[in-house]
Amino acid sequence: MGLARRPGPQPIFATDLPRPDEPLPKFLDDADAVRLAREVAAEPDPLRRLVLEVLSRTGMRVGELCALEADSVVRIGEGWWLRVPLGKLHNDRYVPLHPQLLPLLEAWVAGHDDNGTGLLLTRGGRPIDRHTVTRMLNRVARRAGLGHIHPHQLRHTLATQAVNRGMRLEAIAALLGHRTLRMTIRYARIANQTVTDEYHAVSEKVEALYAAPANLGAEVEGPTMRRVRAEHHRMLGNGWCRRPAELDCSFETICEGCGFFATTIEFKPTLQRQADDAAAHDQAGRAELYQRLADSLSEEEAS
Domain tally for the chain? Predict the structure, then answer.
């Protein structure tokens, strides 16, 4: 008697897996970022200040910072750049040096011995690590009156500030070392002052268009609003469209212009009224369409 046949593997599809959460990156708002920056600028320890200035002004990952080589500062053309080594995504890159970073880095290189490590940032002849950097950051953050801050929040903060001030996502991706814009686009989802300002600006325009004329007294109703109330703008097959003239409608006569649209002789009076109405309102496209339909019914009737 043969062995029972082994059941085949159960397939798993991508739709079977729960969709992962996509939390927004944690960043410092402008007020907290300014408070931190002031404390960093006043930091007396040269290594601590340099570490935090580089993180804040380049947006590099803490692992990339700790791996910076002693000859990372390079001049290309008329500008100075910082060469970021192979990191999380296994790609190296160059980031431009902020004018305030260059003198700090020059002073550090001139008075610092890497003790044979080949690294730019060391303390006591030993490389610094992410835990050391985190302690440095939170020591300064406490003086600024902020809570616990992770070094990666400085990266998110720089990216958020750049998005809010109009920097292109492609440029931000190159600065941060992202391989795809999908990694960068999340910064554009953050609810911030930029979104708030633009929302209110657009809302005011929309509210102006949708201002209800019925709530206005006759004495305050201007000629434009009076015309809007008087004209119904678009005649429909069984009524009128009161959509304000300022709001263009992309669905205007969409059915009548479709190849599957069909009509019969009993609708000829309605189509003719629609054609006349469109012509009276200088809507040439609608007038031509309805007149063509009405004329085609007249030809059928005649035949």
Answer: 2
- The reply to whether 88 belongs to the active site is yes
User: What's the whole-model pTM score?
Assistant: 0.56
For residue 134, is it within any domain?
A: yes
Q: Print pLDDT tens along the chain (303 aa).
A: 555 666 666 667 666 677 665 555 688 888 898 999 999 999 999 999 999 999 999 989 999 999 999 989 988 888 889 898 865 555 578 888 888 899 999 999 888 888 888 999 999 889 999 999 999 999 999 999 998 999 999 998 888 888 877 788 788 888 888 877 777 777 766 645 555 666 666 666 666 665 544 444 444 445 554 554 454 455 555 566 665 555 555 456 666 766 667 788 888 888 888 888 888 878 787 888 888 888 888 877 776
178 is catalytic: yes
**146 lies in a domain?**
yes
Query: Does 83 qualify as catalytic in the annotation?
Result: no
CA distances from 289 to 29, 218, 249, 269, 272 (A): 56, 37, 16, 14, 10
Among the listed residues 6, 19, 88, 90, the single catalytic one is: 88
Name every residue whose Cβ is closer than 8 Å to that of residue 94 and which is 6 or more positions away in sequence: 74, 76, 81, 82, 83, 84
Catalytic member of 187, 268, 286, 290: 187
Instruction: Write the CATH number for 116.
Output: 1.10.443.10
Catalytic annotation, pick one of 178, 234, 268, 286 = 178
Q: Do residues 175 and 224 both lie within one domain? A: no
131 alpha carbon, distance to own chain's centre:
32
Catalytic residue among 48, 61, 93, 156: 61
- Same domain flag for 174 and 51: yes
Q: Among this protein's residues, is 152 annotated catalytic?
A: yes
Is residue 239 situated within a structural domain?
Answer: yes
Residue 204: Cβ-neighbour burial (10 angstroms; 0-12, 13-18, 19+): exposed
In 3D space, the residue among 36, 105, 215, 231 whose CA is nearest the CA of residue 223 turns out to be 231
Does 177 reside within a domain?
yes
